[in-house]
Amino acid sequence: MIFDVITIFPEFFASILEHGLLKRARAGGQVDIRLHDLRGFTDDRHRTVDDRPFGGGPGMVFKPEPLFCAVEAVKAEAPGETFPVILLSPQGRLLTQAVAEELARNARLVLLCGRYEGVDERVAEHLATDEISLGDYVLSGGELAAAVVIEAVTRLLPGVLGNEESREQDSFASPVSPAGSGAKGILDCPHYTRPADFRGWTVPEVLLSGNHEEIRQWRRRRALEKTWRKRPDLLASVALSETDQALLEEIKGAASEPVARRNL
After folding, report:
1. Residue 170: what pLDDT?
2. CA distances from 264 to 133, 158, 257, 259 (A)
3. What domains are there in the chain, each with its CATH number?
4. Helix/strand/coil for 50
């Protein structure tokens, strides 16, 4: 998969691309991340990419010409191909796991990193095919958001993680795994490792039992409980089995019992 990142700070990505998953994916040939300096698509000696907004107001706005020229240069490398051109913007649709999975079905993505007060609206209207936001807050630029998109999408590509089952267990994962075995759109279950006793905090006995069915049931119950306590909004959009629904009712019932009774 090819990522074309258009930015005025290509050096921003140097460290990110040389560590962890992205370094392995690049070395393994699963992804090709191409950085394009937006200033290279200007035609004045000052390499100007921004200007004051019409109508007045604070800040500077990215000019449309360099961004259009940059995307057109990328498209010229792949005549006849179509691929998303994504503007990273606080006004875009929220990046979710489902959106990452949608993007991962493409062979190529162009990511536009804005800066300053924003980007000329004609870029959003006539150049970008999509706008994506990390959340309801504002960053100084789109570079961090682009890095998040790249990582979220890359880890979904075949062969990148090595252990595909691990990906299916992720929080927010789509319901593709067998019933009861994965996160299936809810938060992941708690995880523990050695030592079994750390400062008096012990690992749940069931995880040490070696009984795989009991472990599976415990993990599913704890995943449902964690989701209900921390992100109950997720439960409204996930299809729960009858077993899951019964477990959830047990969890809610136990939570409503007096503490003294629960400790019996």
Report:
1. 63
2. 48, 49, 11, 9
3. 2-154 (3.40.1280.10), 169-262 (1.10.1270.20)
4. strand
Whole-angstrom CA distances from 34 to 1, 6, 79, 103, 112 are: 11, 9, 17, 17, 12
Q: Give the integer Cα–Cα distance in Å for 24 and 18.
A: 9
pTM of the model: 0.85
101 close to 156: Cβ distance less than 8 angstroms: yes
pLDDT at 116: 86
First to last CA, the chain: 56
**Average pLDDT by consecutive 10-residue portion of the chain (264 residues)?**
98 96 97 98 96 95 98 97 96 96 98 94 98 95 98 97 63 48 76 96 96 97 96 92 96 81 48
Which phi and psi (to 5°) does residue 82 adopt? -125, 140
Positive or negative CA dihedral for 51, 92, 156, 188? Answer: positive
Beta bridge partner(s), residue 85: 110
Output the pLDDT for position 36.
98
Closest C-alpha among 71, 84, 64 to residue 153: 84
Q: In a 3-state reduction of DSSP, which class is residue 4?
A: strand
**Res 177: pLDDT:** 39
Catalytic residues: 90, 117, 155, 170
Q: In angstroms, rounded to a whole number, what is the distance separating the alpha carbons of residues 190 and 201?
A: 14
Positions of E strands within 171-250: 197-198, 201-202
CA distance 66 to 15: 26
Q: How far apart are CA 191 and CA 251, in angstroms?
A: 19
